[in-house]
Amino acid sequence: MAQITASRVARVVTGLSLLVAPIALAQQPAKPMPETRAFLEEVRRNLASDETLLENYTFNEEYIERRMDSGGGLKKVKQELFQVYPSVEPGKVYRRLVVVDGRKLSEEELAQQDKKHEEKSERRLSRHAGEDEEERRARLEGDTEKERDVVDEVFRMDDIRIAGREIIDGRPTIVVTFTPRPDYKPVTKGAKMIQKLDGRAWIDEEDKQLVRLEGRLLENVGVGPAKLARLQKGATAWFQRRKVNNEIWLPAEARFTGAAKVFLFFGGRMELQSRYSDYKKFSVGTEESVGAAPGD
Question: What's the pTM value of the predicted model, to 2 decimals?
Fold first, then answer.
């Protein structure tokens, strides 16, 4: 008769646990999905535009534009690198072009850009030169209210439904589908743009923040830094945010792909891509490094 030892017992117990564990996991009930109305209300309260999120940060934006012929062959690639800084007025960032197609701009070219930006900033300041602190606060609060108006209108405008749960970058997200209601007439400028998209969005389940969005254009739309290119109906849009330094969700990448026209002359396919990195907290006289989004 074989001798029963402690080590033999341990091996048997380990083997049984490996067999039983999958069964036990399979028997565990799946985590219920959140109640739709309550979940979407939390998301609505937390949602902010990238423009607002980026008001207190400097960062780099790499812009890549690829043009293809009707057969998919690559015709042209344009690459630009911008250093982006907050402006004296909310929503008016300074996109300082520093590299074009691998060529660093000269000090003279950079100085010319800086001068133009300073002149624009001075003109903006002069428009509000007579404001006292109370008037300035009221104006800025009005800008914030305009953004909330856009967010609120999107939740009225779109038919939003919970579709499931997925893991992105190790974090559980709730997947929702969104489709514009056909009879809704948007009022705000932002909602008029968003109404041109339907698709899916991924919401971080814990933070109730937008993580990813995949959409399809329902109408033609201008894209790119100067909106010179127009993507045609049916083109796709893809946006990704990542949690930076475990404290704030910031843009990581945006892509538009589809048939396009530029100045009505170019007919083919375009892929427009923006990648964001090297975030740093900005304040008057100081810059606190925040770090690049994971995966950059």
Answer: 0.77
